[in-house]
Amino acid sequence: MASAPPPILPVSSAGGGGGGAAGASAPAISVPALRLFLSRLSDSARRSLAHRRPWSELLDRTAFARPDSLSDAASRLRKNLAYFRVNYLALLAAALALSLLSHPFSLFLLLALLAAWAFLYLFRPADGPPLILFRRPFSDREVLAGLVLVTLLVVFLTSVGSLIVSALTVGAAIVCVHGAIRLPEDLFLDEQDPGGPAGGLLSFLGGAPASSGPAVRV
Q1: How far apart are alpha carbons 159 and 139 in whole angstroms?
Q2: Which of 42, 67, 101, 135 is most buried, judging by how many CB atoms fall within 10 Å of its CB?
Q3: Residue 81, number of CB atoms within 10 A of its CB
Q4: Is the pTM of this model over 0.70?
């Protein structure tokens, strides 16, 4: 007597008919564009730091003297800004970093804001799928408007904005005082390339080559 065949059990697909997409879609990020940005940022910082002046020359106490007049102080400041500009930018960055490190909550908010801009807008592929939150797709313009609104709220309704402004104010005051009392007579300003360090420091913000990968919003 032949045995009966086993009963066929119903099998459901893992996708569940698309019901798993009820939440939010994770934004895809262009990894080649991110690598290109980090590489260009590192190269720009390395080239700019190569133009910095020796810190011993910046802090040479024998070259400090009180200016005779306000015009003399302005002339010294202008020459020292042209000569020590990379060092002065490093001082401003150090003042900002120390101020943020002394306020961890503000640092966390700033890092979260930068991460939101990077992952939700800057490094998302231009031809990628739209951002989906709560089953609703958001266009690039809506994402940009939301990021701008969140940025304004973080900057003006928290301590981040005042902290950045105060740190840059203190750094600028230190730079102005040093530039006004530092004698520039021993500085060789003719060797300074007007577009070198400053241009190299921000050159990573330029457009990427066409063969570098997918188009991104940089």
Answers
A1: 31
A2: 67
A3: 14
A4: no
Report the amino acid identity of residue 128. Answer: G
CA-based max dimension of the chain: 119
3-class secondary structure for 115-182? HHHHHHHHCCECCCCCEEECCEEECHHHHHHHHHHHHHHHHHHCCHHHHHHHHHHHHHHHHHHHHHHE
Residues 110-154 have pLDDT tens digits of: 999 999 988 888 877 777 777 788 888 888 888 899 999 999 999
Distance of CA 40 to the CA centre of its chain: 13
How would you class 189 by CB atoms within 10 Å of its CB: exposed for 0-12, middle for 13-18, buried for 19 or more? exposed
Q: Could you tell me which residues come within 8 angstroms of residue 12 by beta carbon, excluding any fewer than 6 positions away?
A: none
